[in-house]
């Protein structure tokens, strides 16, 4: 072991200080952690960690420790069992309680797993490459902590190192090319590099070092897009990859210079994908998860006042366990930057995020990522203040289940589609035979207005379906959604909004927001999934509109006190009513707008049109009556 490298870790770990800090600042979180650890002391497992990828809040007791036998009808339970991330909670509880029974139980489980001497193979319950990579990194953290506290014997360390060397070699020998594009690959290479940093001499595996360094570079090049998003189209797996890279920077400081620019961009994406309630949206295969813990750790490691603004006010338990007393001292020295309105286009992934004091909005029109992608083109999520209103319905499960298929489909997202038709063809839980093709996503901002544009198409029963969606954001806030849909024949368009379970619906009003439309909305029940393997009752608003070949529809979401009046578009010269456009007058206490939408060119006659007597040119135009100012957002 490289003792010079290892001795800094936990070097400032003042146990008395850390114990008091946890009990003073995080008593509720600690009590929950201790409760789950005490259950495991009796071989009763519950997986409720904030970033457990497939959590299970139901306790299951094993009469005897058994790692390779199915316990539920979902193999993900066994995968969580064998990742052993819960070992880290034993370290925290031991530190706070100063009770060595927790260390004894941790060792008992670790050595029991080793003594089982499993055949390591990719399709087993105990040793999938993903789970093996996670487990290896967990064991490194355990070993470093036990060594620092003088709680591990030399023969115990030797036994662990023999097992780890076997597991790392197995990962190398069973590494396949597709892992370069998957979170599975990052978990493996980061574990290899972290272990080799401390135990290179013990392992004597120079080929593994070269492989891991080279492959990590490939992973960063291939799966971290130029805009900082991870290609899989899931915020949860973006965070998981980010956390693995952040761990590598923490455990292998030599990697920081190389990885910091990547981590900075990935952290920015996490901030933008986090709602004002501090939770990531359930985009792709994701849960609704609080991001403050990872942003707090990130603020400290990356020395970022901006990230601290979105983290906790005090150091969380995980960050404290990594750095001890110094974490608190250094975190206090970081000045949190004031939060401000932010608008970001992640053009590589096809995502747009807007953070404002009264409105948070996420929009997606992007390419198919990994098997975690959902068919959610031109869908969006919307918060009013810090309250979620329109949401992503989540993933529910990874089992082959009709509800899994439905939640992956366009008909479970806040977009529009042809009633009784499917825009995608779902093969199973992990694949599609057909998937809508994203053509274009754009963001335009002028003054305090923004325009999002998404355009995609799909092969629907051998005919071309196209959908262009425009979302215009105005102050108040006012959110205008305009849908331009083409599909040959006579059909019905269904436009829907999936609502959070806690909203109040009163006719066309959701909480304090009124949904304006020429077509009345209906509501019905809808199942959503905020956590893995959990379904809860919610509702959706929807409208069904007959059309032939082409339709232009809108929904304007505004405060209930806002006055909205539909206006005609009048062509200059001929004074004809232009039927292929929309216009509104919008008035509240502070604003007075005229808004015009004319998405198709005027082919004959004057190319100007009038809104309430004001001459206008452009496809998306806003006239601020109070300021007597025109803003053309699309020419």
Description of the molecule:
The protein is α+β, with helices and mostly antiparallel strands and 635 residues long. It has three domains: 12-173, no CATH class; 342-559, Beta-galactosidase, Chain A, domain 5; 561-635, no CATH class. It is built from 17 helices and 27 strands. Strands 8, 11, 12, 13, 14, 15, 16, 17, 18 and 19 form a ten-stranded antiparallel β-sheet that branches. Strands 3-4-5-6-7 form a five-stranded antiparallel β-sheet, with no helix packed on it. A hairpin with a 4-residue loop joins strand 26 and strand 27. Helix 4 runs parallel beside helix 7 (129-148), helix 5 runs antiparallel to helix 6 and helix 8 crosses helix 9 (183-203). The longest helix has 21 residues, at 183-203. The N and C termini lie far apart (65 Å). The mean pLDDT is 96.
């Amino acid at each position: 072991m490289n003792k010079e490298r290892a001795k800094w870790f936990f070097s400032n770990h003042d146990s008395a200080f850390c114990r008091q800090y946890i009990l003073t600042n995080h008593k509720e979180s600690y009590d929950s952690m201790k409760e789950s650890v005490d259950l495991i002391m009796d071989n009763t497992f519950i997986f409720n960690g904030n970033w457990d990828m497939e959590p299970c809040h139901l306790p299951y007791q094993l009469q005897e420790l058994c790692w390779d036998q199915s316990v539920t009808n979902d193999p993900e339970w066994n995968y969580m069992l064998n990742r052993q991330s819960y070992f880290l909670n034993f370290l925290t509880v031991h530190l706070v309680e100063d009770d060595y029974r927790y260390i004894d139980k941790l060792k008992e489980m670790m050595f029991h797993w080793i003594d089982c001497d499993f055949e390591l193979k990719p399709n087993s319950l105990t040793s999938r490459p993903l789970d093996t990579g996670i487990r290896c990194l967990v064991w490194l953290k355990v070993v470093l902590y036990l060594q620092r506290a003088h709680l591990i014997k030399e023969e115990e360390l030797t036994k662990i190192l023999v097992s780890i060397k076997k597991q790392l070699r197995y990962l190398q020998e069973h590494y396949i090319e597709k892992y370069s594009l998957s979170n599975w690959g990052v978990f493996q290479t980061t574990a290899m590099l972290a272990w080799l940093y401390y135990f290179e001499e013990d392992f004597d595996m120079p080929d593994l070092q070269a492989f891991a360094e080279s492959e990590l570079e490939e992973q960063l090049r291939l799966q971290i897009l130029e805009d900082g998003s991870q290609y899989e189209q899931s915020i949860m797996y973006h965070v998981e990859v980010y956390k693995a890279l952040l761990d590598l920077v923490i455990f292998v400081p030599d990697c920081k210079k190389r990885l910091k620019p990547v981590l900075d961009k990935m952290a920015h994406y996490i901030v933008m994908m986090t709602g004002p309630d501090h939770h990531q949206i359930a985009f792709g295969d994701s849960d609704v998860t609080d991001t403050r813990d990872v942003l707090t750790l990130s603020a400290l490691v990356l020395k970022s006042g901006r990230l601290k603004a979105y983290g906790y006010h005090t150091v969380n338990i995980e960050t404290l366990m990594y750095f001890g007393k110094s974490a608190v001292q250094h975190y206090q020295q970081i000045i949190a930057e004031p939060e401000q309105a932010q608008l970001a286009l992640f053009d590589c992934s096809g995502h747009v995020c807007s953070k404002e004091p009264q409105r948070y909005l996420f929009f997606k029109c992007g390419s198919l990522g990994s098997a975690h992608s959902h068919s959610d083109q031109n869908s969006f999520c919307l918060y009013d203040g810090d309250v979620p209103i329109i949401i992503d319905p989540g993933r529910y499960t990874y089992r082959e289940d009709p509800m899994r298929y439905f939640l992956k489909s366009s008909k479970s997202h806040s977009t529009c589609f042809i009633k009784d038709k499917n825009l995608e063809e779902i093969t199973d839980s992990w694949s599609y035979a057909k998937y809508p093709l994203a053509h274009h996503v754009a963001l335009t901002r002028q003054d305090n207005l923004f325009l999002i544009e998404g355009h995609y198409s799909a092969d629907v029963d051998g005919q071309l379906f196209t959908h262009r969606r425009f979302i215009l954001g105005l102050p108040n806030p006012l959110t205008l959604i305009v849908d331009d849909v083409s599909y040959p024949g006579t059909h019905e368009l269904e436009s829907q909004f999936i609502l959070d379970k806690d909203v109040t619906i009163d006719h066309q009003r959701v909480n304090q927001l009124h949904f304006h439309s020429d077509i009345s909305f209906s509501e019905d029940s809808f199942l959503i999934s905020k956590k893995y393997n959990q379904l809860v009752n919610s509702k959706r608003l929807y409208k069904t509109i007959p059309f032939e070949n082409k339709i232009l529809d809108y929904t304007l979401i505004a405060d209930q006190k806002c006055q909205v009046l539909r206006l005609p578009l009048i062509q200059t010269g001929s004074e004809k009513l232009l039927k292929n456009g929309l216009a509104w007058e919008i008035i509240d206490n502070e604003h007075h707008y005229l808004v015009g939408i004319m998405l198709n060119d005027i082919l004959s006659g004057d190319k100007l049109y009038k809104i309430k007597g004001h001459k206008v040119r452009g496809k998306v135009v806003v006239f601020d009556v109070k300021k007597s100012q025109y803003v053309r957002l699309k020419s």
